[in-house]
């Protein structure tokens, strides 16, 4: 699967080689100002039915949502890596801080990238809460956006 540049009047499902039964499925069409557009394209060795089309598109949106959750948050100008392990660590530190009125503070987390690490120390409950709530809001907004994209996908345009 790849992102392709093309024209806005593309066919969403097209047989490109009837002899070899090659088909191209196109979705996530993004129009540009100059009449051109970009879209995701998957080449198949058969004509997909509506369930397969829906599955391919849903899997792609799920993957894009996961990528956005994982590395799409910035805090104080630094990337926050929201792996499952980091999410657990942030939640555990926040929960303990709330339960103990901050007795576990200060706590330090590594933000940024491996090439440019940034170590952020949270000295008080308010600063840790700000960080944690922003991370949780980012996850929820990313999920909501992904759900909306999947829900708005119209498989009828491919039939």
Keywords:
elongated, 8 strands, alpha+beta, four-stranded antiparallel β-sheet, two-stranded antiparallel sheet
Written overview of the protein:
The chain is α+β, with helices and mostly antiparallel strands. The chain folds into two domains: 1-48, no CATH class; 50-154, no CATH class. The protein is built from three helices and eight strands. The chain has helices spanning 50-71, 84-99, 125-152; strands at residues 2-7, 13-17, 22-31, 36-44, 73-75, 78-80, 107-112, 117-122. Strands 1-4-3-2 form a four-stranded antiparallel sheet, with no helix packed on it. A two-stranded antiparallel sheet has the order 5-6. Strand 7 (107-112) and strand 8 (117-122) form a beta hairpin. Helix 1 (50-71) packs antiparallel against helix 3 and helix 2 (84-99) packs across helix 3 (125-152). The longest helix has 28 residues, at 125-152. The protein is elongated.
Concise structural overview:
The protein has 159 residues and is an alpha+beta fold. 42% of the residues lie in helices and 30% in strands. The two termini are 21 Å apart.
